[in-house]
Design a protein that fits this description.
The chain is mostly helical. The protein has one domain (about 1-155). About 80% of the residues lie in helices and about 0% in strands. α1 (about 1-25) runs antiparallel to α2. It is elongated, with a radius of gyration of 19 Å.
Length: about 160
């Protein structure tokens, strides 16, 4: 159980780290970037993060689901509940990513400084809004996952507190 929790915390933390790092370092000042700078940074980040996140995010979702099932089978109700909430928040972050952020990323990849649409700033702002939402949803989920680990019974303690 502890190994599964460790692996899931690692995967979930890496996802949140990417979202949080992008929000903390870029999103808070994205409106101050020129169109050229925005395009250059956007394309670079899309190229660097697209592949790894297409593996990491589903792996974290799967790991969290496995953990929910294992906790439920062990009758760890409180821990399973916290992990279930973490799962829902991460899935919501993933749906937001796939439904909003990735399509916008695909638009941005097609833009050049000469073909930049007149509405590029509105598109950028929409991307940033949904990035902020997914960042804080996933951060809340990570907190729930940590809570789950904290309330999970240690081996042997469950037996001692619930005699057969």
């Amino acid at each position: 159980m502890k190994t599964v929790q460790f692996i899931d915390l690692l995967l979930y933390s890496l996802v949140v780290a990417v979202f949080w790092g992008t929000w903390f370092s870029l999103s808070r000042s994205i409106a101050d970037l020129s169109a050229d700078t925005f395009l250059e940074i956007g394309r670079t980040m899309i190229a660097n993060l697209g592949g790894p996140m297409s593996i990491l995010l589903p792996a974290a979702v799967l790991g969290t689901l496995v953990l929910v099932v294992l906790l439920a089978r062990r009758h760890e109700r409180v821990a399973a509940t916290w992990t279930s909430v973490a799962f829902v928040l991460l899935v919501t972050s993933m749906v937001t990513t796939l439904a909003v952020n990735v399509p916008i990323d695909q638009e941005i990849q097609a833009w050049t400084t000469t073909t930049l649409p007149s509405t590029w700033e509105a598109t950028r702002d929409r991307w940033e809004l949904f990035h902020t939402i997914r960042t804080f949803l996933s951060l809340a989920g990570l907190l729930c996952l940590f809570a789950s680990v904290l309330v999970t019974a240690r081996p042997g303690m469950r037996m001692a507190s619930h005699p057969a």
